[in-house]
């Protein structure tokens, strides 16, 4: 007696012959098999012979047109495994602020999906679940992280995905996430900030804030500066690790112009040091997290509302724009990756722009309205 799971040439459901390439495997199970390049076979299970035949016809057409993609690798790997690989191979030198979004992806149900099921619909579900608990800006960062992982896998690991399912063109980002922050120091706020920072038990806190204003570096960039990274003769800073350049070993350090005021500040700081060997850190302010807590307390003590340390980069960029009027030159000093990023940090005071217009009228009276 023939086993019921053994393939047969007759469809028990209809009594008709099965299409070529289709096997009956049991009630509601029809396996369609197709030979592809290299002599390998692919197969799918369907509920009816008609659906199996349709899949065979579609697959044959894609093979003939050169549009077929073998999705078997996507069936054997989960989103969790993909993210894990990305963290191991690509994020060892990344800042912790980017790594911090990885657990949110791995702890969501999307992580258990095989890659073949990682569709735009699945990513939208991830977005909506995250939006229930977190701000729009945080959700966008996590979506962008997932999109970056997928894009890297497509470009570098030959993942057979024709379209990035997490890209902004596939999944709309939450509204309100791209709010342009424009906090700048007003009036005597800078003097008040320096005055209160001078009371810190870490004597370099004042110089660290001043350097942020005069040079416009990111906090992590300034924290990692060593005396060997400063070339006073060439007026240059050598930054081996920046936000926009993670593979310094391959590309070499990023060289930025050292502003005159920042140079004078560093020379003064060096003169006060008992030791300023090439490998010594320039600023002794403790850990990044400890400084952040300290800075927050100091701003409150100074009566400065809604001021973060990163706001000083906005302040620095806007001040430096008075010197470097060419945005391409300004970008070389601040280290922004493109003009669009630079625009987010350039926040001129309205009175300064008005003063420019008045000065222009005085020198060009014939252009008055």
From TrEMBL:
Tagged with keyword DNA-binding: yes
Sequence segments annotated as region (Disordered): 1-21
Domain Tyr recombinase as annotated: residue spans: 180-361
A Pfam match: Phage_integrase
Classification via SUPFAM superfamilies: DNA breaking-rejoining enzymes
PROSITE patterns according to UniProt: TYR_RECOMBINASE
Keywords: DNA integration, DNA recombination, DNA-binding
Record keyword Cell inner membrane present: no
PANTHER family with a match to the protein in the record: INTEGRASE_RECOMBINASE HI_1414-RELATED, PHAGE INTEGRASE-RELATED
Protein name: Site-specific integrase
